[in-house]
Amino acid sequence: MMRALVLRISLLMVCLAVTVQAKAQVNTEPSELQVQVWAAACMACHGTNGKAEGAGRPLAGQPADTLIKILNFAKSGLYTGLVMPQIAKGYSDDELKRIATYFSQIK
Predict the structure, then answer these.
(1) Dist. CA 9–CA 68, nearest whole Å
(2) Looking at residue 56, what DSSP letter applies?
(3) Euclidean distance between CA atoms 61 and 51, whole angstroms
(4) What b/e readout covers 55-93, taking b as 16+ CB neighbours within 10 angstroms?
(5) 83 three-state secondary structure
(6) Torsion angle defined by CA atoms of residues 55, 58, 59 and 65, in that order, rounded to the nearest 10 degrees
């Protein structure tokens, strides 16, 4: 009985140590998947992977600086529209930069 208790306590201590170590190693950078999820909001109008085939403007392969300027104009309200300003306001400046970089790297 004592041996089982010691084994359980040891197992609990190992689990606690792993949890503490994992929290200490949390990466604050968003993953590529997270950036793709953010960019998915743009794809309804700008096409899958930013390769618009209809009325929407293609984003794929555009310079990141250009896309960042447009997104910042939309976020500030200087770029008029019904959808894009509302979507842009939902992201931080860093998130918009990552979205712009994501689309700029698609060929």
Answers:
(1) 53
(2) S
(3) 9
(4) eeeebbebebeebbebbbebbeeeeeeeebbebbeebee
(5) coil
(6) -90
Q: What is the pTM of this model?
A: 0.71
Report pLDDT digits (tens) over 6-18.
Answer: 456 655 555 555 5
52, 66, 72, 93 alpha-carbon torsion, rounded to 10° = 100
23-37 mean pLDDT = 80
- Please give the distance of CA 22 from its chain centroid, rounded to a whole number: 21
Give the tens place of pLDDT for each residue, 64-99: 999 999 999 999 988 878 899 999 999 999 999 999
Q: Which amino acid is at 21?
A: Q
In tens, the pLDDT along 43-63 reads: 988 998 899 887 788 999 999
Q: Dihedral sign for Cα 55, 41, 73, 60, please.
A: negative
Alpha carbon distance 39, 19 (integer Å): 31
CA 46 – CA 55 distance, rounded (Å) = 8
Nearest to 74, CA basis, from 91, 95, 89 = 89
